[in-house]
Structure formats: structure tokens, C-alpha cells
């Protein structure tokens, strides 16, 4: 029997839709990977990306966070909120929802890969804990995550950090580990399906899930 609650079995990574053809060919690779695409369209906060390159994983022998492909435990991440609303623009450029693809993966399947870990808050924050034991998923603030609540106006100033809990896989996540692809509307679905057809990948159903996009 799975030790993971059925409502908590997924993790999610958002990408720019124009990165998908490369990812379909190579899988998701870390920024430091030798096969990383120099033309990859970054949609996250560049300041955080740079810091993570030299931030050590707090598990012996696991290297730096920059060596890992990060996922969140919700598609409705704070990063996505900043992207679609322009809240952190120009540092994080505003983009239309149909430019974004959400890649959904099963946590237990990713945990069969070498060198993975997860955190109970933003991975590079000094107070976040790093774990390599799925039993420790109980350390995550699932209530805030599942309610899409990263508000700190009620005095819980640590909630945004906890909301950004991550699951990270070292170096590469192969295409076979993608559970599904999610987009905002029919226009994005047609674009993604054309990319899949071009790559002769026929086993992915592309789902229109606007609730993933705020």
C-alpha cells in the first residue's frame, strides 16, 4: 500500500511552452547539466536560480541544489502567481497563461530515481529541512498548499516559505516519468499536441486544467 495520501501524490513543474520540444527529446535536465539548452526560456526568479547554484543540499553527498530539477507540491506555485500576474515584473516577466505548461509527476515514481530529496519549505532557505524519506512528507504544510494559501497578512510570516516546499531530482527526469501535461486553454492544447505529434509521442493526453493557473 502506498504511504502517500491520494490527494498528495503529485508534484508539478512549470515550463514555458516553447521549451517543450527540447524537453520531449531530452527529458527535464538541471541548469548545470551538460545537455542543458543554452536557449532555454527561463521563467523563474533569476536571483533565486543563481543562489541555488552554490547552495549545498543538507544531505551528505548530495551536492548543490543547482544540480537538481525542482518541482513544487502544487501547480499553483507562488512563482506561477508572479508570472501570470506580473507581481514581480520586470524581475520575473509577466506571461500569458497559455504560454505555460504544467508537467505533473508521481512522487513515488520520481523516488525510484537516484538522488532525490524534498524540503519542507523553499529549498535554499536556511531554515528549510531536506529529507530523503517519503515518511517525512508529513513535515510539509499540506493545508496551506492545498488551499493555495501563501498569505502572511494573518501574522504567519513563515507561510510563504512553507508553501514553496519542493521535490528535487538530480540531473535529469526522463520523459517516461511524466504523468501528464496540463495547459490553460484550447489554444495551448493545440500547440502542445502539435509538438507531441512532431516528436511522434502519442501516449500523452494533454489536459486543459485552468484551475492550475490561478
Task: Write a compact overview of the structure shown.
This protein has seven helices and ten strands. The chain has helices at 20-26, 46-52, 78-85, 107-110, 142-146, 159-163, 186-198, and strands at 10-16, 28-29, 68-72, 100-106, 116-119, 130-131, 166-170, 172-173, 180-183, 206-208.
Number of helices: 7
Question: Radius of gyration, rounded?
Answer: 16 Å
Mean pLDDT: 94
Q: Quote the distance from N terminus to C terminus.
A: 33 Å
Biggest sheet architecture: 4 strands, mixed
Write down how many β-strands occur, each being a DSSP E stretch of 2 or more residues.
10
Strand order of the largest sheet: 1-4-9-10
H/E series, N to C? EHEHEHEHEEHHEEEHE
* Coarse morphology: globular
Helix content: 10-25%
Fraction in beta strands:
15-25%
Low-confidence stretches: none
Protein structure class: alpha+beta
